[in-house]
Amino acid sequence: MTNETIDTAALAKRAIEILEAVDDAAVIERQAIVQTVAEASALAALLRGVVDGPKAEAASNQNYWGWWAGQDEEVCTIGPCGSRDEVIAAARGERLGEWQDDDGRWKLSFHICEAEQRPLRLSDWIDAERMLERAEEDLSESDRVGCDGDDGPWFETTKEQVGDLEKRIAAACDEWQATHRLLFRCITFSASQNHEHVVCSYPLDDAPSPPLSTTKEG
Hints:
This protein is an alpha+beta fold and 218 residues long. It is 37% helix and 18% strand. Strands 1, 2, 3, 4, 5 and 6 form a six-stranded antiparallel beta sheet that branches.
């Protein structure tokens, strides 16, 4: 890769400068807006990976963990928060999981966990073998191989050649993603831990109140 395609070293340096200059609430402008410092960190990591390779990218691995709360463990609607106490306070503020016990007292019951939301890299989802299979299918349905007996397979390769193709495509995807500073995300957690079921008193005022009980799960 040369400066004719992208000055990745300069871009990586600029991303690091942004991280040092802004606070946690800053909004960073780029071709697609980087909305948080965590996203800027991911951009810097991606750029360093393109410049210096996988070892440098692993060394710049970022922390994408935060605390979340939801009515159940399937869907978490509150977060990310910086700590367990913070997410419990946020859930209480939203009156999450309201219910009434047998004595008529209102309480809150909800699920909390610490979860990771790691950005997506397109190169992690490239399968060269499937790409070749798709090329075979598309070619077979075209006029390019319309002669009798021209039945394929046409793109015959060894296992080693397919592996080499996959590495080359992955490198091209990483360079393309870094060039356009693209940060892809999904809402599904990439990992989770410290699951708990929390029961709290109903917040009748703004005074903080500790959980009545917690139950750690799994």
